[in-house]
Amino acid sequence: MFKILVQSLHAGSGATTVALNLALALSQSRRGVLCSLCADNSQIMASANLSVLQELTFPPDEAIELSADLLFYAKSLFLKGITPPTPDAWIEPLRSDLEILSQAAGDFLVIDGGPAPSAAAKAAAASVDAVFTVLCPNATGLLSLRNFQPHPHELLLANQVHPDSRTQADVMLFIRAPEHQLPSVPFQLPYDEHVLRAVLENEFLSAAYPDCAFMQSMESLAVYCGLLEAQGRLDLPEEEG
Predict the structure, then answer these.
(1) Which domain holds residue 14?
(2) Tens digits of per-residue pLDDT, 151-199?
(3) Which parts of 34-165 fold into alpha helices (H)?
(4) pTM metric for this prediction
């Protein structure tokens, strides 16, 4: 079971949008789970055409069926009212809960981790196979890279970038500067008005606008996840005997 953490360098970058739509893209051919480390899951609830008030009373160990092949834990098992004091103290409880979720997850588990500075997101990064960090292409997002310490299997996602725009050029110039020493060129998620339109219409982007540019980029990320998973299998040591 392949575990993916989607986080952001600061609030409002679009990590929840990416986590939801990546999970939906993966669920087109596989069975899995989307879960959240965030206190507010109203965007996902609204996209599923569910009342955000349901989240206040929903049992933490029960899943919402977003589709036949995708379950969503709105109040994931790690949010039982226990708040470990340090990021390191989150690691073992998270690892244990991820094992429980793995039994229901099937082929994949996508975690909406929220802002990367949070203790929960830092702990989750130690327990997953891949980390996608969403970067908003503005001054706040770029400056947040200065203290960025990438995960070994981390991919930066520059969100809502206009193709061939000045913003795109500025992002690339900033990221390629030698002092930042980033592991890879970021994957660019295109600006797409259909993303907001689907949220306002209380519909999944994959259902309402399956051929839009943003959903096509999610399908590309799903393929990338498959390649990472295959590479992980190849790297496993052979069993003796």
Answers:
(1) 2-235
(2) 666 787 878 777 666 766 776 776 666 665 665 667 888 888 998 888 8
(3) 42-47, 54-57, 87-105, 119-125, 139-143
(4) 0.83
**What is the separation, in whole angstroms, between the first and last Cα of the chain?**
25
Is there a domain that residue 186 lies in?
yes
Q: Would you say residue 216 lies in a domain?
A: yes
User: Residue 236 has which token pair?
Assistant: 């496993």
Structure tokens at 89: 């103290």
At 37, give phi and psi (nearest 5°): -105, 10
Q: Give the separation between CA 197 and CA 208, rounded to whole angstroms.
A: 9
Which CATH number belongs to the domain containing residue 118 in this structure? 3.40.50.300
The Cα 89–Cα 119 span in angstroms is 9
Instruction: Report DSSP state, residue 232.
Output: H
**Pairing relation of β-strands 70-73 and 64-67?**
antiparallel
DSSP state, residue 64? E
Q: Is residue 240 part of a domain?
A: no
Q: Is the dihedral of CA 161, 209, 115, 5 positive or negative?
A: negative
Cα 87 to Cα 64: distance, rounded to the nearest angstrom: 28
Do residues 108 and 1 touch, judged by C-beta distance below 8 A? yes
Name residue 100's amino acid. Answer: I
Segment (H or E) for 206: helix 205-208
Helix (H, G, I), strand (E, B) or coil at 135: strand
- Residue 34 sits at φ, ψ, to 5 deg, of -110, 130
Is 146 a member of any domain?
Answer: yes
Residues in Cβ contact with 176 at an 8 Å cutoff, skipping those fewer than 6 apart:
185
